[in-house]
Write a structure and sequence with these properties.
Number of strands of chain A: 3
Oligomer: homodimer
Radius of gyration of chain A: 17 Å
Largest interface: A-B, 56 and 57 residues
Helix content of chain A: 40-55%
DNA sequence: GCATATAGTATCCAAAATGATACTAATGGA
DNA sequence: TCCATTAGTATCATTTTGGATACTATATGC
């Protein structure tokens, strides 16, 4: 999504601005996983099997410059880098949970490859 | 943002899926404005001064196919088309409000051109 | 001496999103 | 007769995103 520097909105501007921070391809996911606690680079990579290193680095750096994520480097070999949410990032928790809840209630679950509930059918397909 | 068809996430998937629905460049804004009620095409265009017709049509159509927005065409001349939220769309209200509140509290207000509160300075700039 | 692991970079390319601009139809009013 | 209005389309160019691939450093274990 292209950034817009001058928000030409009068009313909904903060909505767009917030959406821009968390709207990268993997950012929602990353934030969501980091909500569970500090994670190393490779741990995150394992959680997102299809992400490339480039994108993982990239998205994490963007989250870092947005002040949402803290990056802690340990001078060891092999290197160790731990990522965690800042206070700022943790304050997104209600939003992330709202997104998750809405998605679970309103989107067809079948798009997700695996999930615990596969027999129960109380989920609404989009048209409903 | 590129769509991903097969959500490779096990846990945060609904977060990403929901984000995809509302993550278009103007979608957050459009949904936010439609929360206030039914709007005609040109009314929306006036609310988003920098949007092009192409993008407005485009984003509205996408919201429509996502089942979030209803498009009512009146066979008049000149044409009249009214856009409103579906139930599905209205159910996003908590999310949109959460995004707005978070943005107001955590983002530097100065990026926004105009807004009512310009004297009070209780907003935190990003670094805080 | 060599492979392994970690957390990256660098480069190039493809695809998707967005923007600019010009065009349309039908009717009412000046 | 001509212009304005509405809600679009069509076409093209540009920008932004995302993906593939190959490359790096260095201590450790074998």
């Amino acid at each position: 999504m292209a950034k817009h520097e001058s928000y030409d909105c009068v009313a909904g501007c903060p909505v767009e601005a917030t959406l821009e921070l968390i709207g990268g391809k993997w950012k929602g996911l990353l934030l969501y996983h980091l909500l569970e606690g500090t994670q190393r680079f490779n741990a995150l990579k394992r959680m997102l099997p299809n992400i490339t290193q480039r994108m993982l680095t990239n998205q994490l750096r963007e989250l870092e410059s947005a002040g949402l994520v803290h990056r802690q480097v340990y001078a060891e070999v092999p290197p160790r880098v731990e990522y965690s949410l800042t206070e700022h990032g943790r304050s997104l928790a209600p939003i992330l949970n709202a997104l998750k809840t809405w998605g679970e209630q309103h989107l067809d679950r079948s798009t997700c490859s695996q999930d615990s509930a596969s027999g129960t059918a109380e989920q609404a397909s989009i048209g409903a």
